[in-house]
Amino acid sequence: MKLRKAFKFRLDVNAEQQARLRVLCGHARFVWNQALARCNEAYATEGEYVPRYESMSKWITAWKREEDKAFLTEAYTDNLQQKLKDLDSAWRRYFDPKLKADRPCFKKKGRSRDSVRFVNFNKYCQLNGRRVKLPAGIGWCKFRKSRDITGLIKNCTLSFSQGHWWISYQAEQDITPPAHPAPDHWVGIDVGIAQLATLSDGSSIAAINSFRQHEQALARAQRQLSRKVRFSSNWHKAKARVQRLQGRIANVRQDYLHKTSTTLCQNHAMLVIEDLQVKNMSASAKGSVESPGKHVRAKSGLNTSILDQGWGEFRRQLEYKSLWMGGEVLAVPAHHTSQTCPECGKVSPLNRLTQSAFVCIDCGYENNADVVGGLNILARGIEIRERAGRRPDRL
Fold first, then answer.
1. Among its keywords, does the record have tRNA processing (predicted)?
2. Quick one: which of 88, 105, 153, 355 could link to 53 by a disulfide (CB 3.0–4.6 Å)?
């Protein structure tokens, strides 16, 4: 089985290389916006149709011949082509009803994530220890190599975030899917806010609440930024302070989710989770002027807590890590998991009168409500697998 893994490192570049990278990112952003504008025109006039990459790639040559776009001749063509491929992929995700992806939007300097990709790594790039040679006039750069890169490097992506440049190598590996060391260990996972996850075996994983930990410091830094003269020296310093705090929040959350997901995938061959629509669950409740929403402040706090846990990222990590380790992740319907009695099957909101306590109104079964959710999630996963002729010997 061929598998692609990413290896991301901090990139150390000098002033000249930074300037060149910003120019390359500006070229790529310009091409994205120009192509997206033409795609939007086609979508508006021809219905659900937009040009594919094969058509968009020809636009680059035509734009370079136009007087007002002649600066694109200084760009690295592969970067522009890769950006159009990204746009093509974004449109395909948007039209896929299973993914429910957002429509591609325009990129703005300073707000959107700047990145460029270099393909055919072995042909145009060179790796030597902790240094990498890149084309497009960048040259040799140092990067903070914290682990070995295994596999054949196919491409690398340079991006700017949190005030620093980063390089991500995509390496292809040919592996044999391993047998999981605990093939009969299945577990249901109920994600929440008070606890990141509660397992069907009764154990729980604490929530890290990364944003809540830094909320006051971030609010203070954002207030200071709002008082600065826009684009002044002090404004840039205050903006960098906000970026550092936002980066710290994201890094703390990401690190915790990686450690948690790795442990779960190592110890359980089958992870049964709820098929949650996080985007819908965290949508704003303010409504419109004609039809204003109710409990807007409370819903806003709930949305912040949901997004602070990183449920979507947690699921993504569980899915790809289980694949690496020979396990599997099964998503089951999420309705009434905490209102269904795991003993008698009675479904009623009266079974859960408080946030944490579950007491069945029929058989009197008592347990923690989150544990009950984990048990019901696991039961639904077992039911689905029994239809397919597969059931664990022990849980």
1. no
2. 88
